[in-house]
Specification:
Elements: H1 5-17, H2 28-37, E1 42-45, H3 54-62, H4 67-70, E2 73-78, H5 83-92, E3 96-99, H6 104-126
Length: about 130
């Protein structure tokens, strides 16, 4: 999710090139609306958004009553680069932090890493 369409398209293309199925959203409300239809494995979200920001988004995700949604791995992709920003982002409930601009290899590796956490958590819950 990113409010800048060029950034959304660029991130989507990087992920699609790696074989991911991608849905795009330009706002918190748009993204939340899409979650009711499909719960993705990973969300990549900007922090600085108009009206409702990435922190609003992660609070909505983490407090959602459906565990398929509240447990989604969410990566922050942001221009905020100070160490304090990173700490705040992770403490807010994001599962990872990427600083813009991000290259395809770094983005794909981060998505794979958080997807691995999801798979490990699911396999532990079955035992």
């Amino acid at each position: 999710m990113d409010d800048v369409s060029e950034t959304r398209v660029m991130v989507a293309r990087m992920l699609e090139h790696a074989g991911a199925l991608v849905s795009m959203a330009g706002s918190v409300d748009d993204a939340l609306g899409q979650l009711e239809a499909v719960a993705p494995d990973v969300i990549v979200s900007d922090i600085a958004l108009p009206f409702r920001d990435g922190y609003d988004f992660i609070r909505e995700i983490r407090s959602h009553p459906d565990v398929r949604i509240s447990g989604i791995q969410v990566l922050a992709l942001t221009a905020q680069g100070r160490e304090l920003d990173r700490e705040n982002i992770l403490q807010a409930g994001f599962d990872g932090y990427l600083r813009k601009p991000v290259g395809p290899a770094v983005l794909i590796e981060a998505v794979r890493n958080v997807m691995g956490r999801t798979a490990a958590r699911k396999s532990h819950s079955k035992t």
